[in-house]
Amino acid sequence: MHTLAQLKSGQLAGCKRLQLAEDLTEFPREIFTLADSLEILDISNNQLSELPDDLHQLHQLKIIFASNNRFEHLPESLGQCPQLEMIGFKSNQIKQVSSASLPLQTRWLILTDNQIEQLPARMGELHRLQKLALAGNQLTSLPESMEGCRNLELVRLSANRLSTVPDWLLNLPKLAWLAFSGNEFSHVEHSENSTVLTLDPSQYQLAEVLGQGASGIIYRAQLTQGEQINEVAVKVFKGGITSDGYPSDELNCCLTTGEHPNLIKVLGQVDQADQLALVMELIPPQFTNLGLPPSLQSCTRDTFVEGTQFSPKQILSIAQQMADTLAHMHQQGVSHGDIYAHNILMNLHSDILFGDFGAATNLNKLSTGQQQAMQAIEVRAFGCLLDDLLGQVTTGQPELKANLSEVAKACMNENMAQRPSFAAILTQLHQYR
Prior knowledge:
Protein name: Protein kinase
Number of domains: 3
Oligomer: single chain
Shape: globular
CATH topology of the largest domain: Leucine-rich repeat, LRR (right-handed beta-alpha superhelix)
Domain Protein kinase: 204-433
Binding site for ATP: 235
Strand content: 15-25%
Order of helices and strands: HEEEEEEEHEEEEEHEEEHEEEEHHH
Structural class: alpha/beta
CATH class of the largest domain: Alpha Beta
Keywords: ATP-binding, Kinase, Leucine-rich repeat, Nucleotide-binding, Repeat, Transferase
Radius of gyration: 23 Å
GO molecular function: kinase activity
Strand order of the largest sheet: 1-2-3-4-5-6-7-8
Largest sheet: 8 strands, parallel
């Protein structure tokens, strides 16, 4: 974090990344003194509602974040910035997005949690667009021109007012991570899963925080049931809309999916007006994250701790378990939406646990053809995961590595009709040793 005083004194001369959060109501003109170096500008958590018309003077600017401000329209000056390719205006009050506000070179557009009712037809001209986050708006449709966004890989459309999922969206050749729960066409009432107990918050005592995500906070807790006291994990959902949609939809998808050996076991749910929570088995401490989330540079692909290596045999084991898990999920009519190494936990024996249903979607109201298309989209995500793991492979077992590479290639085929199903992938993987 930087200060306005530092900027005005010239202490930040030559800096490439600037972050200012001081309840600003006007864009500081002093930022232009960094025009020859500034690549990333973060002015989130201020009181801004306008950007200057001459923003393009920041000719090195590639990334701008302006979340949690007071913008009511996406500033048109963004469209004139010659190198700007990542735009984040989450949690404003944006109602209007004009065609002039979108640079043609845009790769990453985040407009989550605003009040947007319509997108401009020019969206279809954003041929480099890879990542599009629009959850928590008031969209009733998408421009058909977006069929031209052939490089789209990740799309978030949850918690809008869409009446259907367009077929052109389901057929985009590189789409791998899609979420659209909380829309009229996909809404399914809460699962009546009788195997999951409904609990009262008074039955558990929260202890330290174990982790935190977009939709909630996970705590270690003690669960009391009769005379039994057990150590558990409790995910307490945040209120409102997350980057992936409504917490209630995450809860619903988790319960609809049911049990599987590679899914974190759900012991109970809390479904009250003032609290939504999942009570889960406590994950043994020997399980650690398989990867790290995508970076600003990798955009949609996972990253790994430097020096991370996997043997082809480990990758085969991970792939078999994941294919089986995803086949199970789609049999229950649920897509995960976030198939990534950073959502997978693994121990030293290559046993995995898969979690984080924040971007999951209940598919049970879709047609059979649409459900098959959603599986094909997730198969591509599985292929990307396999490809990322193979990028960290150790030497040895060249034949197995080559076989796994062929599976990844088939899963990422841009002709969706030629991608295998998860059941077929699992059969193929079980032939390898």
